[in-house]
Amino acid sequence: VQLQASGGGLVQAGGSLRLSCAASGRAFGRYAMGWSRQAPGEDREFVAGITSNGEGTLYADSVKGRFTIYRDNAKNTMYLSMDSLEPEDTDVYYCAAYRSVVGSTVVSWGQGTLVTVSS
Length: 119
What we know:
By secondary structure, this protein is an all-beta fold. It has strands at residues 2-6, 9-12, 17-24, 33-38, 45-50, 57-59, 67-72, 77-82, 91-98, 106-109, 113-118.
C-alpha cells in the first residue's frame, strides 16, 4: 500500500488542523493505520493508531483529548483531526500502515507533512 499524507501547515496555538492520508493499492481496509511525528534530530514518536475497521483507537498521552484519528475505508483515507494545538506539536507528521495490529512492524510510511504551531 502506498500512502500520501497532506494537510499540514502553519497555525496559531489553540488552533486546529486536519491531516489526511490517502492510500493507493489494494486492501487499505485490511491494515491497522497510524500517525507518528518527528522533530529534527529526534526519534519518530507514535501519535495515534486505529484498527483496520476503525472501531479501535489508541493515542499517545501527549495528544489524548486533543487529537482524533478516524478513517473512511470506502475512500481509502485516514485522518487526524488536531485541536487545541500547542507549539510542542510542531513536527513532521507521518502516516503508516502496520503489518498487523497498531504498533507492529510498519509496512509503509507516507512522505510526511509539516505542522508548525506558532505561539
